[in-house]
Amino acid sequence: MNEKIVARNLNVMVDEKPVLRDINLTVMANEILAIIGPAHSGKTTFLRCLNRLIENQPGFSRTGELLLDNRDVRYWDVDELRRRVGMIFATPVPLPGTIFDNVAYGPKLKGVRNSRLLAEIVEKSLRAAFLWDEVKDRLFTSALRLSGGQQQRLCIARTLAVEPEVVMMDEPCSGLDPISTAQIENAIRELRAYYTFILVTNNVKQAARVSDRTAFFLSGELVELGPTAQVFTAPRDRRTDDYVSGRIG
Amino acid sequence: MITRPLLVQRLVWFGLALLTLLTLIILFFIIGYITVNGAPVITPEFLFTMPERMGKAGGILPTIIATVYVALIAVVVATPFGVGTAVYLTEYTRESLLTRVIRFGADALAGVPSIIFGLFGFILFVIRLKMGWSILAGGLTLAVMILPTIIRTSEEAIRAIPEQFREVSYSLGGTKSQTVMRVVLPNALPGILTGVILGLGRSVAETAAVIFTAGSSLRLPKTILEPGRTMAVHFYILAREGLSMERAYGTAFLLIVVILVINTLAYLLMFRLTRRLK
């Protein structure tokens, strides 16, 4: 297994305030890394650094290295970087328009015009996100009429349609019921062979269920990173222990 | 003092209902008065023939055509500038002194009386740029006049697009211009159209700004470089010179109908657009 993403002494400031401090971590290709931690611990910031969405924020600065395939993200062409590193947001955000339009949006940006090819990509992506059977008869109806869980799987399909290498998920199940959550976790497990996953979650049990390794962030620092089983059963750091057992956070 | 919530509620309800009723009465009185006086004048002959004896007799065909020309030029010219400015202000700059100056300028322009625009258009387009009294000069003057309206309504519409839509587009590898063209503008379209329609309505109804720039010729304008008299100007001249109150009311009635039709069409269009997006 090779190192897909490497952070070395990554420091991020927003408006002169440190949001991430001296982060050192490696994400291996085709693993599922869970990032847990309380609110404002820097989890989302870390994801937004990876696909450089954070650059849209005024007052942002960073030092240290953040590499994708051994090349700092800041040297990647930003659109190319974002195609390689897909992102699923906490609340599902279908764009106004049909289900088909949503999934075809990314490929169209890349310049795919052929309607047969687009249809193929849409089907493949919806199947991969376990949504195809539920929507195949209404691809051309509004995406906003889907349920919350379906919308989130649509967002997953939309991200997969641009064929990313890394899929980042920012609390993808925070607004969903247990059944929808199970469907999404199921999708993640099925897709792990093809993608590298970074799963930010506030749901400690979810991290335990799906991930290979878990990183615990607290106040912008990486407290602990290890195999998920170890982090949850035998954490090395007191603070991790307190958090996973529910004493703080 | 004993307060009686129920009584207060009723009083407030009664007061508000009364105010609404008064507004409606005034509005319907104006429309009704003009309809009663103007509607009987409207005949095919009135609409489709040339005026005779300075408008004392005959129809108003050239004024209808001049109005359509002038208003279309205004909207066609002002829309790209207005929407472009709004996109620049919202998507391509951060809040700064410059954006505040532009916004302040647009607001100040929106408050300028239209006769000032008329004089400005006269000096710039008619004299300086040697367009003479012409449909083109009138249309351009109106374009300047409705620009602030289009800028501000478009800006509001664009600002109302959730930031998440943009982030989704960026996160899928979309460039700034792709995001603007494919996500921001299509979703802001109903709001942008509102501004354009407001501008169109103002252009159709404007008198002071066009009388100095498009002139008041009653000949049928064949090209946009010829002068023309819009319906609003025609109404003004007929009424002021006391040429024919009957025909003035006919023109006024037609103006109101045109504006109603424009607004209705706009609402239908917007309804269809928003339904497609839902």
Q: Kindly report the average pLDDT value of chain A.
A: 90
Shape of chain B: globular
Q: What's the SSE pattern of chain A? A: EEEHEEHEHHHHEHEHEEHH
| Biggest sheet: strand arrangement of chain B | 1-2
Question: In angstroms, what separates the terminal alpha carbons of chain B?
Answer: 53 Å
Oligomer type: heterodimer
How would a crystallographer describe the biggest sheet of chain B?
A: 2 strands, antiparallel
Distance between the termini of chain A: 33 Å
Query: Order of SSEs of chain B, N→C?
Result: HHEEHHHHHHHHH
**Residues in helix, % of chain B:** over 70%
Low-confidence stretches of chain A: none
Based on CA atoms alone, the radius of gyration of chain A comes out at 18 Å
**Which protein chains make the most extensive interface, counting residues with beta carbons within 8 Å of the other chain's beta carbons?**
A-B, 27 and 20 residues
Averaging pLDDT over every residue of chain B, what do you get? 89
Instruction: Please tell me how large the radius of gyration of chain B is.
Output: 23 Å
Features:
heterodimer, A: 249 residues, alpha/beta, six-stranded mixed sheet, four-stranded antiparallel sheet, globular, B: 278 residues, mainly alpha, two-stranded antiparallel ribbon, 11 helices, 2 strands
Task: Write structural notes for this entry.
The complex is a heterodimer of chains A (249) and B (278). By secondary structure, chain A is of the alpha/beta class. Chain A contains ten helices and ten strands. In chain A, α3 packs across α4. Chain B is mostly helical and 278 residues long. In chain B, 76% of the residues lie in helices and 1% in strands. Chain B starts with a helix and ends with a helix. In chain B, α8 packs antiparallel against α11. In chain B, strands 1-2 form a two-stranded antiparallel sheet. The model of chain B has no long low-confidence stretch (mean pLDDT 89). At the A-B interface, α2, α3 and α6 of A face α7 and α8 of B.
